[in-house]
């Protein structure tokens, strides 16, 4: 199986930026589509962004389009989420996920999940 460890969360002011990282181990990273999700208390875990294992296709939630960018570095077995122009609405625990599906799709289920990293945006 693959293990995922998120890092890079923290406390920032509105308008600031953070870059989250998700380090993968255990299996060949390039075999997996990768996604970022976030969750706030009392809500379902929401899709944020995803990137195909081929590094060709990406999806973004409408709420983060133009502000967040998902990238991957297969040589480092790491996926990133660059978050710019942060607002308090972006406050959440952010989770990294991986799946070996043949084709990346927006609503697919992910088999592997990290433990999450907290992002807090103050106003």
Care to count the β-strands? 11
CA-atom Rg in angstroms: 13 Å
Shape: globular
Give the rounded overall mean pLDDT: 95
Helix content: under 10%
Strand content: over 45%
Q: Which consecutive residue ranges, at least 5 long each, have pLDDT under 50?
A: none
Q: In whole angstroms, how far apart are the ends? A: 40 Å
Helix and strand element order: EEEEEEEEEEE
Task: Enumerate how many helices there are, as a single number.
Answer: 0
Largest sheet data: 7 strands, mixed
Q: Structural class per helix/strand content?
A: mainly beta
Write the layout of secondary structure elements.
Blueprint: E1 3-7, E2 10-13, E3 18-25, E4 33-39, E5 46-51, E6 58-60, E7 68-73, E8 78-83, E9 92-99, E10 112-113, E11 117-122
Parallel strand pairs: 2-11
Antiparallel strand pairs: 1-3, 3-8, 4-5, 4-9, 5-6, 7-8, 9-10, 9-11
Write up this protein.
This protein has strands spanning 3-7, 10-13, 18-25, 33-39, 46-51, 58-60, 68-73, 78-83, 92-99, 112-113, 117-122. The protein contains no helices and 11 strands. 0% of the residues lie in helices and 50% in strands. It has 123 residues and is mainly beta. The strands form 2 sheets. Strands 2, 4, 5, 6, 9, 10 and 11 form a 7-stranded mixed beta sheet that branches. It has a 4-stranded antiparallel beta sheet with strand order 1-3-8-7, with no helix packed on it. The protein starts with a strand and ends with a strand.
